Each structure stands twice: as C-alpha cells, then as structure tokens.
Structure to design on (1356 residues):
C-alpha cells in the first residue's frame, strides 16, 4: 500500500467521468461552457462573488496570485518551509519579476501574528529596503497543520492594516476545511484572504487547479491574472477538460468528501502511533519518528512512504483511502510499539 | 459542421484510452514510467538521440525552447505573423526575461534566407544593439504553408554560420510532415533545428505538447528546460497523464495518421474552391476570399468558421475529418461559384 | 574639428563650476540640498507641478519611465528607428520585464497619428495579443526632426482616448525647444505627455539626466520610479553631484542657450550644403549625402564625423560651437559643390 | 564633525583633478583613452590579467556581477545582513531575473565555511529546489569586520568544489586591504574570488565603481557584463569621467592611502571607547553602545552620526580624516566613560 504522496493516486471516478463528458466539440481556450460556470460554482461554494481561473498546477496558481498581489520590488511574507520557498524552484521570483520572499519561522509551518508583525516593524520605510506587499500562508500547511478562521483572521488584520495582499496556498484546502468543519468562506475571504489557490489534483483530479480572487478588487486582479496565465503558457487550448474536472469537484461536494476520507485515514493512523508523531495530525499527512529498521520492517510489509530526514518518515493518505482501508498500516504501526 | 479550429475538437480515442491506461498509482511529476519512455520514443521517431519534455501548451514549449536558446539581451529572428509574435501575449519576452523579437516579412508567414541574412547583416556588432541569438520558424506556418527540408536547411545554415540557436514551432508539425512525406529528421535536426515544439493537442490530444532538443547540446539544454518548466509552473504533479497521451500519439504513428486525415480534408475543400484561395493549401488550413453574404450562406447551412478580416475566412480541418466527411462543405463551396 | 557626437564634448563651464560648488559634505543618495531643489526648478521651467528624479543616463531615464507607464504584458508604440528600439540593447525589455516594443515607420523618425491609430486598431482585445499601454516618441528625433506642439498633442489625444501612457525621450529636448521657440510646457504636458526624459549630458553635462513626471499621477509614478532607480543601481551615493549639474542647466536657462548655439551651428552647415541633406535640419544633427572621396577630402582637412551607411554621413554639432566656429566646415562643404 | 557615512564626504583632490584632466573631447561611452587603461591598471594592482568595467554604483556592480555568476533559477549564498540582502531594494533579483538570495547568519556579518557547507548540503538535487550557484561575501563587512585571505580561501574552496561562482562586495575593499596589509591578490583571486566590486565612491570618488573579473572565464563574463551594463542604463555616454576617477584611485596608490587614513581614524576612536564596542574595529566603522543621553551629549558637541537601533550608534570615518583630526571625538568618547 502506497503512502508516498497524494500526487501518486489515480483520478477519482467522477473526475474521469467529467473528462469524458467534456469530450466533445466546443470553443477553445476558456471560451467553453464549462469554464463559463466556474465563477458561479465557486461563488456558491464561498457565498460571495468569486473570480475563478483554472491553471495547470499549484505552483502556477500560487505564483500568478502573488504576481497580482506584489510588485517586482516588493516582498512576500511567508513561512520558511512554505512550498513557495522550498519546492517551486523560485517560481514566485519568476512570475513576480524578482519580488523577495521574506521567510519566517513558526511551529508546524504556521505563521503567527507576532512574528509577522515583528518582521514588518523591522523594515525601514525608505527605497533601500524591500517593502512587504503580501502575506502568503498555506492551509493545510506543509506539515499537515490547519489554520483556524481566527488564526487566519489575525493575519488578515495585519495584512489589512499594512496594506498587504493576502494569499492562501490551498493545495490541501479541502483537507483543512474537512478538519475545521467550517464554511469555506470563514477561513478565506471573511478572514481577509484576497486570493486562494484551490487544490484539486492532490484531491483526486488529473490536471488543473483553481485560482480564486475575492473582494472588491477581484475582477481587476483576475483580469491581470488572465494575462499572466496566457503569458506563462497556462491558457490551455482545450481548457474545457480542466474546467470540467474542477466543476466535478466543487459542484456536488466531491472535494470535501474526498478530503474527509483522506483525513479519516490519517486519523486512524495517528491513533495507532500517537507516541511517534512529530506534529499533530489535522489533515492527511503524518510525520513520525521512525528508525531505519522500523522503516525497513514496514516496507517489508509493502507499505511505501518517504523518509523525512534521518529517523523520521512522512506518510500521506489520499481520497481513495479511509479508516478501514488503512487498517493494515495502523496495525503494523501498533506492532512496532507493542510488537 | 465546425471548422473553427483544430483546438475545438474532441480527443481521438487512442488518446482517451491512453489516459485511462495511465490512471493508476505511480510516482508524481515526471518520475513515472510513461515520462521515462519519452526520450526513446522520440529518438526512434527522429532517428537520433532526443531529449524530450512534456509541457502544458505550445506557448510554453515555444517559450521554454527560446529561453534555452537566447539570452535576455539577445534577439530572436522570426516572422512578423508568427504565433510567438502575435498570439502569445508576449510569452517569449516573459520566459527569456526580455529578449527582443525581430519580426520579418515573408509570403505565407515563411522566412526566406535572403531576408534573414539581410536583417542579420544590419546589426552593428556593439553593445548598443541587440545581437541576434536565435531563429524561430513555424512549420506548418500560421497560413498553413510548409517549409521543405531544403528551405529549413538553408535557414539552418545561416543559424550555424552566425552561431544562432534554431527553433521550430511545430504546433502543426504533423501536418507539415504528412504533406512532405519526408522523415521527421529531414525537416528538423538534419536541417539544423536545435529545438522543436512538437504539437499534440491540435492533432487529437487533450493537454500536453512535447518539447524536443536535438544535437550535442540537447542534454544541457533539456536540463535547463526542466528548470524553466518547474519555475513556470509546468511540472504537473501527475505528469503521467501527459506522457501517456504523447506516447499514444508517437509510438504507433497516430500523429501522422491524424494529420494525414486533416490534410486530406483540407485538400478536398481546396479543390472545391481553388479560385478563392489566398494561400496554397498544404496542411489543414484554408484561407479564402469570402464575401459577407457568402459567409452567411455557408453558416445558414451550419458550417461554422472564423472570418479572417473583411471578405475573407479561415477554415481549419482536423483529425476527425477526411475528404468524405467534409464533402458537404466542399459541395457548398462549389455551389458558391457555380451555384 | 570633431562632429562625431554631442557625447564627445567637454563639460560646459557652469556645469563644472556647479560640481565644484557641490563638493562639500552633505547627506548621501538623494537626501542632499541640491536634489531637494529639483522638483521646484522643473516646476518653474514647465509651469506646473513636476516630480523629478536624476538618473545616470538617457537609457535609464527612458526605461524607468516606460516601466512606470507599461506593465510587463503591455506594448509600447514607438518609431522603428527610435533609440529605445535600436540603441539600448533591449533596456526597455529589461526594465519593463518583457513589455513588447511596437515599432512603426514614419519619415524622419517621427510617428504620425494615422499610423499609430491604425496599429492600435489592429490589436484584438483578447488575452492572446499584447495590448498597447504606452506611446514613446523622441523629440528632437534620431534624425534631428522636431515635433511641434500640435503634432505632439495629436498623439497625446490618441494616448488619452486609448488609455495609454505617453513618454517623450528628450535626449535632445533642449534642441527641440530651441528650434520651436515655444514654452517647454506646450510641447510636453499641455500636449498630453506624462513622462519626459530631459537630457543634460549631450547638452554640456557630465553625468546625469532628469526624469520628469507631469500630471495627476506624477507622484505615484515618481514614487515607483524611485524604486526602479534604486533597484537598477541608479541611486548614486553622492547624488548631489548629479543634481547640481542638472540645476546648473535649468535654473538659469543654460540648457536653452547651449542648445541654441548647437542649433545655430547646424543651421550654418545646413545652409552650406542644402542640396545634400537627407532630412531637414531642425536641431543639431545633419544627415547628408557624401561620397567616399568627399568624406575623405573632409577628413583630410581634419573634420571628423561618422559615416551613415554608404554614401552618407552624420554631422552633429554641440553646445561649444556656433555659426562662426563651424564656418571652416561650412566652407569646406561649399567647396565640395562649387569647388 | 560628521560621522554619518563615507558617502557624505567631498571628493579627494586628486579625483577632482582627474575629472578636470578628462574634461576634453574624446570618444563616447567606453571608447575613450581612460577607459582603455582600466584592464591594465587593475592587472598591475592585482598581479594577474583583469577584465574591468566602470559602473555607476556599488549596487550595480554587485548585481551585474551576480547576473554573470548565477542563472535566474539559481541561488546566491550570502550573509543575512549583507548589503545585497537588506539595502538594495531587491536589485540582485532584478538583475538576475529572479535568482534567490540564500541568507545565512554569522558573527559580524561574516560567513563561515561550516554554515555555508551545511546550507549547501541541505539542498536536494532535484528541480523542485533552487540550486546554489554563487556565494557573495562583503569585505570589509557591513559591520566593519575583515575576512583574512585564509577565511576567503576557505569559502573559495567550497565554491570551487560545488561549482559556484564567488563574488566579493568590496564597497570598502580598500579598508579591508589596508587593515590586512596583504596583496590585493591574496584576498581575492588567489583565494578563489571570480568577481570583485571594487569601491571608489566611499573612498573619495564622486561617481563610478569598478567591477572586476578574474580567472579563465573573465573575458566571457566581462563581455556579458558589458551587455548588462548597457541594458541597465549604466553605459554612460561620457564614461571617461568615471574611468579617470578610478584610474586616479588605483594608479598611484591613492585608494590605499585614503583607506589607511580612514582606518587610522577609526582605530583612534576605538581605543577611546573599547568598552562600548559591539564589534571589533578593523576597517572604518564603529558600532558602539550609546545611551540616548550620551548620544545627545555628543551631538550637542556637534558630532553627528546615526543611531543603530536603541542604545547603540554607528560612527563611520572617511578618507579626509586621520587619528589627529578625530581626536576631539575620541576625547568626547573618553569623557563619556571617565567624565
């Protein structure tokens, strides 16, 4: 059984069905009937007007969002272990034309208001220093931690008072909402988020993430984002196949059902190995202490996963699993401790 | 019957079958078994070692190729009606960090050696002027014209003697080869081409084009291209679905069969309307004189297509058609003249 | 006697005196007393509030202006022989992060409203094409031609109606105003110009040109320009020496006196060789038909100048000359025709 | 007496004399006789072939050097308090087209081999992470500390083994060499440095710093740097005035004499206030604990300087001072402790 990554899984059947249903003649690029439904579909989901675009990947969604929120001479406050910092080969610098990332520490890859406020206070208001122009957070974080609506709102308030754009990398947004049980609106625009990278691929999709803009500037920013999308080679000539996947995710609640299944699987594993956890398990990722012999023992039982440095491992669950289906690994983990 | 664009068509069945076959667990990004087969598949097709990458779109393929061939302070010699000039919202300038396009005239959107040589000779060898560093041509061109191996080789020789990289935009490369009946190698690397954007989507694919590098520098350039692919958000987390589509195209000759069908459809229409043609029909596009009433008459018979300025129209055929299936439009065109 | 370029001349004495006068302790960068006077000095000269910055060169002034007027995905309408197109090694593309130059033809390197309007009308309003966002003209032009206030205003009206920024490269602005005898305001902001590169170095300065912003957005744009100036390494640590030179030029009318002298010298030469002129002589440059033997004959008399292609030459006069001082060349030119 | 910055001082007389001596007709840009002497002058000083360019500022020198050493997708290892990180408004990101700075801690703004090696070891060799491609250090550092030849060589060895370019920001290089008493070569190319920003303005110049390339790739890199210089608007049309200043500095040892005077002044002050020093004084900067009342007391005696956060101050000496001339401040500092 594989726990490498939620990138490694097949498509969930409704997504494949949506692709097949979109497989007929229609206008190219984003001129098709599916793309035309995106704004309304996300507007319903978020209970507010939304400007939505499909793009190829989460890296593209994050980078285009940041290019719309931060000028080339600006800075983007973010966590030092954020995906935009460590796993995108400098894509934000490419799309923003050289804006500076301003990485900060924080437990579980979460930013805290105090650390952000202190960083902002340290910037001299002259032309020699890079002015902060945006904040970017990841929810759920790279360590599977979840920001609550109040935690997001506290950062949103700092963004508002400092005139910064506020972006959320939601590659695993569904897992965060599934954990919180809140309205998607509560942890995004109601908390001050201007732009959201809404992940679909890790949650059962094939290709295509959604970039969402909220608030009064959403249309101006989306119009600019459409320029960046074309300019960066992300305006697919048969965009309907992306739009159809995204609609399949959001129009019937599939996004949340899939994430809930993955989270449940993660919780089942967490309960089996509480003593080893390096971070509380809130979404669909577990980080746990695991010695080399223990890792080898699990792999001998055909459980695959990535090491996470020496003596630790990362286990990622996905939409195709649930508490029952991961029981074999849960049992194997228990045996490590109570063999 | 629609003749808007070869972007508007459904997928050809083998491509959809390949997507379904790839729908199982495998490593993410380009670590899967399908992506691993690309170099060999294109190596067989082109009879030479090839370094191949999948990217999202033709715009991305063209731009990444140019970023690997031309420095930011360099210039790219191209046709003034090339896709990179008029239909990519400045994407080459984005990926190359500001390289200058050097547009030149030429019948049927084809560059000729004389015009290119004259342009190159006019550049002063000082730091004040932008030095040409690459040539980019489109085959088949934006007007459906095809460069022969000799015509490409003549430009390739100029590129070689001036130390310029040589790129071919092959969004409709299959249509060009189908018309020429030559080996793919003859009209590319044997003629001096360093990088080829190998189109799949217009030819029956869903998403994903191939970027190919030939020659002694191919591995260095491909390694750099992989950085640009990631950096521009084109490294899909489930790349196997793109690789599988591309392999379905090239491993069994589907790419050429599809293009031959589209070309045959275009020839059938061309024969029906020779007197109106603005350009010789060599690939799968027709540009013809058509008055507003004539266009209206055809549309009244449910033939759809784009106007091409006043008094002209563009008709594009595709993989799903052939001479027989477009007979109704052929007849309708004949009736316009011999009503 | 040298007629290579107005770049080759020494400083005019008041500029050297101003440098010496600024040679004392003061705050660094642009925090000094001379830099603080720039806005007011240009405000007086242009009869309107002005936001002024010193930068190193005309290329920097032009590029920073364009970066403030045009987004990376926009286009800049300009003449195909403009300095920004042919003599800045792509600097506008560097500062604008890849904006596209949209070169147009026109006699004497002058843009005409019809040609500009036609180019703008040809741009499709979709994301595939680069939208024009700015117009840039050079006054006096690269061929020493001068735009009148009415000619500038006609282009300014097009800029206004299309929402384009309007930039003027004034490397030889003083020569243009000296020829026109109008108020500087008439040929700039009153005619719709948003940003002016005000040249000093060709007119007797050592280092430092002024970048001026007019109109309601001047402060926002200047604030952004200050970011670009720092970011591009143009915020000198001893900026007072640049500011002092510029003030010496504009506070006492030196800029106009110098240009008038250069223009008078050019007129004296023009009268001596009317039959050979390739362009009317309006500023301080002459372009004339001159055979190789004739050029050799002049050089044998120690008159230096650059060839301008085969059978032609460019002669540039400067602030240190006047009608009398160039009489020897005038006589030599007459002798060519009436030997 | 002012101790704000070595940017605030007048020119040293030989530099002003050199400007006057260059004030005659010569070819423009870098085609003059002074610019032609730069390579040889620095070749003599560094005992090795050197390719030298003048640029406007230290920010430009640093950024152009980094653009020649690091690709847009690369990373630059540097100190978290380096000028390129905190005082250039992101200029390195602008010139490198988005390369990532990789800031590291270190006492006195000095990088240590261990910290650098650890950072490099943490980078995964895949396309998701930014690969380090350059190291940049400042000598003397932003805290007036000096790297010894051995310390530079240890970092140079890391650069060599990892295939990284090695840049030294020498805004106060003269002060470092004056402190070390070594050959300039020992602390640069002999220690593995590829590119040096050789500062002149803080050391008595008006405008113009030198960018030097050493080693087998120097000519290729300098040729590229000349493109960046033009492209960034730093190719002055009367470059001879910059070249003449730089030659005045280096051809007769003025650079070292000026720095020695500034260092001696700093030492005299250091001896007067050893108990307050936050960093050892090695070059021409002192950072000392100073309460608000103490700072006020010194300012009341007309000693000016910048606060350095709460309870501290920065005092900078310059070429126009020496131990005797700063005695009044030395006495005043002593009185603070032994009033």
């Amino acid at each position: 059984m594989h726990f490498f990554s939620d990138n490694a899984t097949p498509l969930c059947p409704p997504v494949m069905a949506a692709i097949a249903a979109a497989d007929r003649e229609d206008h190219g690029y984003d001129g098709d009937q599916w793309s035309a439904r995106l704004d309304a579909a996300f507007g319903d989901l978020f209970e507010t007007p939304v400007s939505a675009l499909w793009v190829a990947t989460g890296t593209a969604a994050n980078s285009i969002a940041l290019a719309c929120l931060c000028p080339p001479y600006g800075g983007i406050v973010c966590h030092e272990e954020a995906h935009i910092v460590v796993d995108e080969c400098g894509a934000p610098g490419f799309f923003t034309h050289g804006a500076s990332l301003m990485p900060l520490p924080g437990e579980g890859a979460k930013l805290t208001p105090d650390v952000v406020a202190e960083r902002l206070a340290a910037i001299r208001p002259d032309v020699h220093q890079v002015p902060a122009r945006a904040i970017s957070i990841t929810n759920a974080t790279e360590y599977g931690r979840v920001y609550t609506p109040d935690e997001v709102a506290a950062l949103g308030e700092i963004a508002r008072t400092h005139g910064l754009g506020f972006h959320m990398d939601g590659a695993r947004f569904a897992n965060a909402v599934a954990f919180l049980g809140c309205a998607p609106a509560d942890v995004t625009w109601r908390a001050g988020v201007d732009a959201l990278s809404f992940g679909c691929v890790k949650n059962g999709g094939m290709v295509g993430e959604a970039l969402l803009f909220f608030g009064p500037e959403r249309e101006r920013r989306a119009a600019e984002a459409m320029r960046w999308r074309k300019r960066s080679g992300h305006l697919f000539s048969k965009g309907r196949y992306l739009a159809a996947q995204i609609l399949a995710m959001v129009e019937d609640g599939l996004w949340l059902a899939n994430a809930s299944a993955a989270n449940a699987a993660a919780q089942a594993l967490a309960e089996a190995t509480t003593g080893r956890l390096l971070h509380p398990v809130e979404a669909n990722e577990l980080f746990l202490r695991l010695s080399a012999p223990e890792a080898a023992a699990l792999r001998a039982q055909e459980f695959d996963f990535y090491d996470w440095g020496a003596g630790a491992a990362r286990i990622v669950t996905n939409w195709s699993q649930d508490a029952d289906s991961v029981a074999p690994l849960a049992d194997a983990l228990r045996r490590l401790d109570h063999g």
About this structure: The mean pLDDT of chain D is 96.
